Amino acid sequence: MTSPNEIPLSRPDITALEEELVLRTLRSGRLSIGPVVEQFEAAVAARVGCHHGIAVNSGTSGLHMCMLGLGIGPGDEVITTPFSFIASANCILMTGATPVFVDICPRTLNMDPAKVEAAIGKRTKAILAVETFGNPAYFDQYTAIAARHELPMIEDCCEALGATLKGRPAGHFGRCGVFGFYPNKQITTGEGGLIVTDDARFADMCRSLRNQGRPLGWSAPKAAEPTHGGTATGSWLRHERLGYNYRMSEINAALGVAQMRRLDEMIAKRQRVSRWYMERLGGHKDLVLPTVEDDVNMSWFVYVVRLAPSYTSDERDRIIRGLRAHDIGASDYFPCIHLQTHFRELGFRPGMFPIAESVSNRTIALPFFNDMTQKDIDIVVGTLELMISRENLGRG
After folding, report:
1. pLDDT tens-place string over residues 86-131
2. 297 and 174 in one domain?
3. Segment 343-349 long-range contacts (CB within 8 Å, at least 24 positions apart)
4. Which of 23, 125, 252, 373 could form a disulfide with 189 if both were Cys (CB 3.0 to 4.6 A apart)?
């Protein structure tokens, strides 16, 4: 049972505006393939300066569609990071292509640009770069590398809505970008994602793929939702390619429209919480805090600290268990992708990406959400310091 005093790892920020727009959509009778999705698509695309937005039911679906839209398949290789949520590499496997991992920079936790370029080979079909925890560091360099080698770059910006690098917004560095809207993200649609691109033909392909492979340019009747009987022309039952049911519902989009209206407010709240953590934890000898370069405007997704290199993963896990025992939400963030079970079956082994593995073994995600108070921060930090002190006593 959840304690009434628990400080959770994350919590969505929902107000009366979200309730109003969702209820209005429910009462409209149009729950799928309607104007609210289009409104949400336009809002996100405009925010990142892209011409097209394609809403989908998850960030994972969006990444998969980008792979398919770029023609990536068996025999191809895609360069990506081993330090991310697993969807960024799973979407490569979904097409039958092979992920080629490169190690990360220990400061930014994004891929080391020099290692990205060194990994490009004859079978490389794309670069899939991830803005880890909302940090767009090096994304201008990845873009330049992709251009030099005439490769498309897919931007996994699922954690980075609102971030900028040298004034350029996350989502506008690659041939396409994918945002995610799970409840712990900067904004949420409950479940959902959105592809952004400036490529009209690619956008049309994604719209077809998300909608069961229906013809490009297909649209539902305006007066009522389509039925299984089809429209007068029968286009509802026409399919030109293998497609998927990756659509976002009008209800989810209504939540997203409301959240987008509040995006700047919510980013500011998250920056405030991150600043409080920095002030309370700065200079702690046992911790490595997140690094934000001067040309980066971070859009904080989570707040992740690392224990000093002398700590083991077992010690980190005991500290996390201690935090949870005191009603403090905490987690490791992220386990390395290449060491997950089905990637080990592909031949990946410990030691292949030592920086990512070292970082992964020592991460602790602390509670992080918009309405955290300074009192919450004090409780979290005090408990973390107690758990670290306890662990140090046990080390003798």
Report:
1. 999 999 999 999 999 999 999 999 999 999 999 999 999 999 999 9
2. no
3. 343/89, 343/99, 348/101
4. 252
Same-domain check for residues 280 and 189: no
Q: How far is residue 73's CA from residue 146's CA, in Å, rounded to a whole number?
A: 19
Write down the pTM of the prediction: 0.95
Range of the domain at 82: 16-261
Q: How many residues does the chain have?
A: 396
Whether 164 and 279 map to the same domain: the answer is: no
Q: Is 113:140 a contact under the CB 8 Å cutoff?
A: no
The residues that are catalytic are 185
Looking at the domain assignment, is residue 1 inside a domain?
no
Select from 141, 133, 199 the least CA-distant residue to 165.
Answer: 141
Which amino acid is present at 33? I
Please check the confidence at residue 152 and state whether its pLDDT lies above 80. yes
Tell me the C-alpha distance between 24 and 210, whole Å.
Answer: 25
What's the pLDDT score for residue 394? Answer: 76
Dist. CA 185–CA 187, nearest whole Å: 5
